[in-house]
């Protein structure tokens, strides 16, 4: 409570101005009406009263608007505030969290990652149940003959450079990819929406198959690891660059989680590539690395432009130019230089 007291010669009248908690002493006019100085003082007090009343009214209106906003958010099923607060702490630097929370909603829901995950699971179940393998938890003849898998001798079927993400080498392979892309992809899509997340994911998938055709040109390729690693690469760079703003303790935990996942998954990929049984078929691991690089370039620029126009960011166009240069080189290599020819 603030008390403003003016020294007066006689008993003053005290007035209280509502929620502002202000008491003002108003001196009484002397008998006979007072002189010019008294009239000026009374005029000043009237102005001060008007200002305080206006401030009181504005504060009441702001409080009412804030209560109405909170009430609408609590009633709106598409704005679960607690979930959005957690997502903002894990996905965004502090400087843009308030902006996200003000406009956050689940419309549209994270359909891209969910749809891709369902498609990958459906294809896996098809080859495991309706087209059973001798050992369906590993690569076998049925999967290797799939029209989705990338095979170097069938590179002219261009869809295989993308569709290979639907086929997986076994249970541990698809479970690992699904857990990673759902656990990271859904929060990313809640923040950045499906178009941006889809761009990063597919950039990693295409980069993975093209890199495999260059650096491991005689090996087949299956799995969505290129897209998953693109999401992880973009998120990893975002945490690294905005480490101080993304709560250092949480930042360390997040980096450690990403490192553990990458090391374990890369270990499994290297095993499938170099220590596969004699009756099995080795699978390329280059997609993991290429997807990670796609994420650290395109993914980082996309995920760091939450509250900015992506097409106006020069970093985005620099990353796109580098990516297109790689794609053109890969196409040239596959047509004229590949050992698979």
UniProtKB/TrEMBL annotation:
Compartment annotation: Membrane
Entry's Gene Ontology cellular component terms: plasma membrane
Spans traversing the lipid bilayer: 107-129, 161-186, 198-215, 221-240, 252-271, 283-303, 315-337
Record-linked Gene3D superfamilies: Rhomboid-like
UniProt keyword terms in alphabetical order: Hydrolase, Membrane, Protease, Serine protease, Transmembrane, Transmembrane helix
Peptidase S54 rhomboid domain segment(s): 156-304
Catalytic activity: Cleaves type-1 transmembrane domains using a catalytic dyad composed of serine and histidine that are contributed by different transmembrane domains
Main enzyme class: hydrolase
One biological process term in Gene Ontology: proteolysis
Active site: 225 (nucleophile), 288
Location, primary (coarse class): membrane
UniProt GO MF annotations: serine-type endopeptidase activity
EC numbers on record: 3.4.21.105
Keyword Transmembrane helix among record annotations: yes
Membrane topology: Multi-pass membrane protein
Family assignment from sequence similarity: Belongs to the peptidase S54 family.
Function description: Involved in regulated intramembrane proteolysis and the subsequent release of functional polypeptides from their membrane anchors. Known substrate: EFNB3.
Name of this chain's protein: Rhomboid-related protein 2
Species: Bos indicus x Bos taurus (Hybrid cattle)
